[in-house]
Amino acid sequence: MLGGGVILLAVFATVSGSIRGVHSNKAASYQGDQFTCADGKQTFPISFVNDDYCDCVDGSDEPGTAACPNGSFYCANVNFKGQQIASSRVDDGICDCCDGSDEAASKCPNNCQQLGAHLMEEAKRIRKEQAIGFQQRLVYATDGKAAKERRDEEIKTFEAEVEELRVQMEERETHMKEAQTPAEEAKEAAREAHEAAEAVRTAETEEVIRGEAEHEYSLLDSDGDGDVTTDEVTRSPFSYLVLGCFIVLLLRMIWTKRLLVAIHTCIRYLMSWCSVRPRKYHV
User: Fold this and answer.
1) Which residue has the higher pLDDT, 142 or 228?
2) Which residues is 73 bridged to in the sheet?
3) Core-most of 18, 84, 203, 260, by most CB within 10 Å?
4) How far is it between the farthest Cα atoms of the chain?
5) Is 240 helix (H, G, I), strand (E, B) or coil?
6) In this structure, what DSSP letter does residue 25 have?
7) CA-wise closest residue to 70 among 80, 60, 81, 82
8) Strand pairing partners for 213?
9) Residue 196, CA distances (Å) to 7, 40, 201, 208, 255 in order
């Protein structure tokens, strides 16, 4: 009786063109009078398909029965997601496919529409959340772009201020250099003028001292021969007067910071005055 039912199932599948447990994209392999196993090794009459006997090594001839341990059954699950299950779960009394196609007719309820509706609601919820996230992302992107533009503008302003300060510093340095140049030139000119004036004063002072010395020397030179001897110095009635004048002259030279000239004059005077033997001292 069971064999007759299987034969009727196979005949119905052949006539109707719909093979139980076969995906629509593989249906062409189960059309015609002959069937070739998926591995291409064997070919049988189409009546061997789903006859509850495993003829193909790969189990492809029994997609709608549990005859082949390595076979697979496809649940169409219209209004929901298609599903591929092991053929060993076919007609085992457990509803694995939501459309109940893995079990005998009317044994399992078809709840694919409910599951599909729930799946659609879940998909809508996910799309809604994604849309909200996308809008928030746009807000973040807009805010980020505006913040970046503000930052770039601040950087440009800062760079412009830095450049302006740099130009001002260069101008100030130029003005300072321009101001320093006349000041330095004036300072140098003043220094040169001071040195020149000092040289003139030194020459004038030395000239005065020279004149006074020559005058005093002429007083000591009693015979007017241009030479002053020790006897002339010791016999001169003006010797003490000359000594006093010499001291005054010496003090004056020291006071005017002509120390070297004073020392030189003092040595000359002492050599003329304190000589131990009469000799001529030529200026």
Assistant:
1) 142
2) 85
3) 18
4) 186
5) helix
6) G
7) 60
8) none
9) 142, 125, 9, 18, 21
Segment holding 168, helix H or strand E:
helix 112-220
DSSP notation for 178-203: HHHHHHHHHHHHHHHHHHHHHHHHHH
Q: For residue 271, what are its two tokens?
A: 């050599």
**Angle at CA of residue 147, ends 144 and 152, nearest 5°:** 125
Neighbours of 62 (CB within 10 A): 27
78 touches 119 (CB < 8 A): no
Identify the three-state secondary structure at position 98.
Answer: coil
User: Per the structure block, which two tokens stand in for 175?
Assistant: 């003005």
CA angle 14, 16, 21 (to 5 degrees): 70
Strand partners, 84: 74
CA atoms within 13 A on the CB side of 206: 11
Residue % of the chain over a pLDDT of 70: 72
Burial class from Cβ neighbours inside 10 Å (0-12, 13-18, 19+) for residue 29 reads: middle
Concatenate the DSSP letters of all residues of 120-148 into one string. HHHHHHHHHHHHHHHHHHHHHHHHHHHHH
Least confident of 42-46, 121-125, 204-208: 204-208
pLDDT digits (tens, 9 = 90+) for 208-249: 887 777 776 776 666 777 676 766 666 665 556 556 666 766
Pick the closest to residue 10 from 42, 70, 68, 51 (CA basis). 51
Among the ranges 11-20, 94-103, 267-276, which has the highest mean pLDDT value? 94-103
Taking the alpha carbons at both ends of the chain, their separation in whole angstroms is 171
User: How high is the mean pLDDT of the chain?
Assistant: 80
* Tokens (6 digits) for 272: 């003329």
Contacts of 91 (CB under 8 A, 6+ apart): 65, 66, 102, 103, 104
